[in-house]
Design brief:
The complex is a heterodimer of chains A (about 230) and B (about 90). Chain A is of the alpha/beta class. Chain A has six helices and nine strands, in the order E-E-E-H-E-H-E-E-H-H-E-E-H-E-H. In chain A, the strands form two sheets. Chain A has a seven-stranded mixed β-sheet with strand order 1-2-4-3-5-6-9, with helices on both faces. In chain A, strands 7-8 form a two-stranded antiparallel sheet. In chain A, strand 3 (about 30-35), helix 1 (about 40-55) and strand 4 form a beta-alpha-beta unit. The longest helix of chain A has 19 residues, at about 40-55. Chain A is globular. Chain B is mostly helical and about 90 residues long. In chain B, about 55% of the residues lie in helices and about 0% in strands. Chain B contains four helices and no strands. Chain B has helices at about 5-20, 25-30, 45-60, 75-85. In chain B, helix 1 crosses helix 3 (about 45-60) and helix 1 packs across helix 4. The longest helix of chain B is centred in the first third of the chain and has 16 residues, at about 5-20. Chain B starts with a helix and ends with a helix. The interface of A and B includes residues 139 and 142 of A.
């Protein structure tokens, strides 16, 4: 029988945030930090399929909602990479994470429990994520007949939240994204797409897709990696 | 890592597959004259945003958005020529 998901929550800053769990009874529990913003939506199905595969192999995992994202009732414009990092730390403690795995921009906030072994796939720089969202906003404005510049948006973002590609981002978030790099952690296993994990850059695709072979490759790799360290 | 011209073209082909999800066989068959914008349904103005950022990351270049006009995505050849000029 295919493993069934469990829907649970963690507490952060006075709110309950949603967590999707597979294999809660397993001794190894991998906290999955998803990609950020739109890339999260595009990767979610592929990630959840990987979590199913992990549970079939006997390794538990849980996928957290970052405050202000997905099912969260918290406002996104009040969040920053710093609050997300703290939220990851809170979820790791409350769910007894033994390992942390992140994808793309998740690597910018996955060090809320920096002492645990970390696994990163295709980590992204904050500046790249921000640039794509700014370009999307400028392209949308252009189609609506408005001329918007990157410099103008960055200036406006110093004082008040701005809307970028459907996300209301506050001053702290924009400022942090502009310079964020994947953080140092004690024990890091870095995976490159195409070299270590065969698959496609689903997070860049305008049309969300899935990739069962990629989910399977991630499940196999995370299972073997988590057995080899920590926990 | 410096890019030789042939690898720029290869990188652009990979980008069209990775970012736009265009079938690899379709991309492999593209020549300089193959039209892109308006001809590839996957390439709309929103997809262009992701494509430009990924081009910057993979070719290690900076693209000033003022450099971008309609002709850039007119054909496969014009996109490759733009990238080669940026790589220098």
């Amino acid at each position: 029988m295919s493993p069934r998901p469990e829907y649970r929550t963690y507490q952060f800053a006075g709110h309950e945030e949603h967590v999707l769990c597979f294999g809660a009874e397993a001794s190894r529990q991998i906290l999955i930090v998803p990609p950020l913003f739109d890339e999260m939506n595009r990767s979610r199905r592929m990630l959840v399929q990987a979590m199913r595969g992990l549970a079939e192999r006997g390794t538990g995992s849980f996928l957290v909602d970052l405050p202000g994202c997905n099912e969260s009732l918290t406002s996104l414009e009040k969040q920053s990479l710093s609050t997300w990092r703290e939220a990851v730390g809170a979820a790791a403690t409350q769910f007894g994470a033994t390992h942390i795995a992140s994808l793309r921009g998740g690597a910018l906030v996955d060090n809320g429990a920096a002492n645990l072994p970390h696994w990163r796939l295709a980590p992204a720089k904050g500046s790249s994520l921000l640039k794509t969202m700014i370009r999307t906003r400028i392209a949308g404005d252009k189609e609506a007949g408005k001329a918007t510049s990157e410099a103008g948006l960055m200036e406006a973002a110093k004082a008040a939240p701005i809307e970028l590609a459907g996300n209301m981002l506050g001053p702290a978030m924009v400022a942090e994204l502009a310079s964020a790099e994947p953080a140092e952690v004690a024990q890091l296993t870095l995976r490159a797409l195409g070299q270590d994990i065969a698959g496609s850059t689903l997070w860049l695709r305008a049309e969300p897709q899935d990739d069962p072979a990629m989910s399977d490759a991630i499940a196999t790799d995370l299972h073997e990696w988590s057995a080899s360290c920590g926990g | 890592m410096p890019f030789v011209p042939d690898s720029v073209e290869t990188t652009i082909r990979e980008l069209l597959v990775d970012v736009l999800g265009v079938a690899p066989a379709t991309v492999a068959a593209m020549t300089d004259d193959t039209p892109l914008f308006g001809a590839l349904p996957e390439l709309d103005s929103m997809a262009v945003a992701g494509l430009l950022t990924e081009m910057e990351d993979r070719l290690d270049i900076m693209i000033d958005d003022d450099d971008i006009d309609g002709e850039l995505f007119e054909s496969f050849g014009s996109l490759v020529a733009f990238a080669k000029a940026k790589v220098g």
